[in-house]
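Run folding on both entries below.
>entry_1
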Amino acid sequence: MISSFTAWLLVLWPRLQTRAYSFLISGLFAEFGPGCRVSPPFRFANLRQVRLGREVIINRDCWIHVVPKTGDDQSVKLDIGPYCGIGMGATISAAASIVVEDHVLLARNVYISDHRHTYEGISSPIMHQGVGEVAPVFIGRGTWLGQNVVVLPGVTIGEHCVVGANSVVRSSIPAFSVAVGAPARVVRHLNRETGEWEKLPQAPTDTPR
């Protein structure tokens, strides 16, 4: 039978581990705000070009990555604002600019990238062709991205949006909207005059023959 002390230690140990790991890794970031916590295991590259605002939480199994470039450019390419929560298994990969404003919540396994792999050359494997289609990504304050959401290059998501689970965001979403699907489309938005969230009419679908 597990003693009460052992049970208490099992509950406390992950928190202590996260605090210790956060302290050790904090110096690798361009900025590591007060109260930030990073839980191991954590995969990363080029954290010198990543800024975390205060009290950002990055849960276990995440991959935070800035694509290396030749030259001396060490500017911040990934900027995560204060009070954001990054869910387990999330991947954020920046080549030019990804900005995540304050109080953004990412559920598990969210993928955000401002670039894609090039594939046009057929004489070499895709894994050796580098990246292309680089375009900035911006996610507004207070937005929630559901589980397994994918955000592709060039997308702007406005403030206080909800993007439903398993959605693929290929084009920008205006502020105060709910979007779902692959590709994601807006299905509900806030009427600023009435203060009510309203459903949008669905696009007509082809009738099966």
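>entry_2
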Amino acid sequence: MQLFPGYSEADATIFGEFINPRARAEPGYIVDFLGSRIRTTSVWKQARLLDGQLAGLPIPGDFHAEAIEWIGLLKAVRSAFGQYVAMELGAGFGPWSVAGGLAARLRGIQNIRLCAVEGDTEHFQFLQQHFADNRFDPREHALFQAAVGTTAGTAQWPVPDNLAATESWGCRPIHDSADQVRQQFGSTREVNVIPMRDLVMREVCWDLIHIDVQGDEVEICRSCIDEINARVRWIIVGTHSRKIDGDFLDLMWRSGWLLEHEKPAKFNFLQGTAALETMTVMDGTQVWRNPRLICAGEPLSSFSQEIVSETDELRLKSGETYALDITVRNTGTQSWHSGGETMTVAAGYRLLDSEGRMLPMEGERTQLNSSIVEPGQSESLKLRIAGPRQPGSYAIWVSMVQEGVNWFFDRNAKPLVLRVTVV
């Protein structure tokens, strides 16, 4: 039996970087690990059973999303530098806008600009309240009660009959009289449609756009893919059929984006249904990163390496320096930048004593030969290793390091391990 979560154990360690120690349970709310306060009056009946609880880490998921979606959000926040700018389309009560903003606050980011678009009138009120409940003044952010489309105009929005707003999620604008959504709902109301391009052009650079518009994801992104390529760093998209899974993969792959995570929609085949979306029993998720907008001087979100050497054991004299031949390969999804003033990537090493305790000293850095090492590329380096003053048995962990950010092995990348005897 295969279990496919869409992420690895190493990916899940990112949650540890964002746990809010001040988060406390509170009556009338579900409080998550970030400290996000979610009113139980804004969620569905089953979720209201969590009233007054402090939720644990969303592994493999929580009441509204799987871990893959959370990991994508936190990666986008972790790669933000100096500011956090994000947009949520099909926002509902705004869980991803607020969660991203709170995660950015936990990292000390003060300049936070959020945009959220929601077509349903009652859900839009939940959205405004959720912002206010978490100290994001709705007047200071761009919140729109509207639908998202390829062109400006108006559309009919379904109004569920005899169903509370907290139980009616997953609506979208009705495209024509034959639309299967119209057949499910008796009433409609008119709603404005904002072109996707206009939304993208509101900011020079978006750290994240989260898209969950119940079937129109491919069309709205295709309508302004050039602007998305130039301005958006991360995209998380909820997919609502296997066809949308494939079409969105094709669009983003052809546009040069890198797929960080994905989990396809789950469906039950039913002959004679009106649309593929009606077969879907669980939405899929895709997390995409734009390699064009990861630049020198920014923290990495992908720490992956392969380091090899023909040498696996050293015998050194105390204080002696040895030049170790190594080959390093960028197995991640982001470029390594070298030679800059800040956050450059270099090779280095750490020493462990005979009991496996890491010593405080850090070895000399070896700079990359190239200014940029792209994913999949390798370089041969000579790493200068200085023998400790104290004789004995040691281990050396050879690893890449992004200065001022992290050693790669601290982010679960496998180091090259050598045995060392100092005489």
